[in-house]
Structures are given as structure tokens and as C-alpha cells.
Specification:
The chain is an alpha+beta fold and about 110 residues long. It is about 15% helix and about 50% strand. It has 3 helices and 6 strands, in the order E-E-H-H-E-E-E-E-H. The protein has helices at about 25-30, 35, 100-105, and strands spanning about 15, 20, 40-50, 60-70, 75-90, 90-100. A hairpin with a 5-residue loop joins strand 3 (about 40-50) and strand 4 (about 60-70). The two termini are about 30 Å apart.
Amino acid sequence: PCRSHFNCRIKLGIIDINSNDVSPAQMIEEFSRDKEFYENVENIERATTTTTFEDGNVYSNYWFTWKATSKSTGVTISNPVHSWFKWDGDKVSEGAFIFDPTEYVANMPQ
């Protein structure tokens, strides 16, 4: 199911996660799976800014640290994430999440 801030009428994958296009529903599903493999999941050290450019485009940037403990290894990971979202009215029409998945993947069950 699509969340209200995402424009679900767009048929193309509009969210870019480390260069992989996914739909808003896929993004929500994948990010929700974190709790299968990690506990104490937190988004900490958050900062957000929204900018309106001269051409009228509106973008929000969201930086945070994703922190969690692997259920399989017991290792706590702190991973910086940058995301951006393009707004069309009150809906997100494009977006991206950029992060290094190396430690995340390394601490998942093998």
C-alpha cells in the first residue's frame, strides 16, 4: 500500500535506492524488513532542509544515521544516509536514498 506523501499514480519506479529504482510500496516494504534482521533500529542525528529553486522545483533533503544491532552477529551498525525528495504539490514525485550497504549486508544471516 502506498503512503499518503508519495504520489502512487506514477507508474515508473521513482525512488532510487543506491541506483536501484523501486516503487514507493517496494521501498516501504524493503525498509520495513530491517526489523527481521536487526533490532533497536533507530534513525538518529537527523537533519532536514527544504529548498525552492528558481525554476519552482521544491526538494527536501534528509540526512540521518541509521543505527541498529544485528540479530545474527550482535554487531551494532551506525550508517550515515542521505535522502532527497522532489515535491509536486503535497506529494513526493521522485526521491533517492544514498548509503553504503557494506556493513548492513555483512551483518545479515549468511
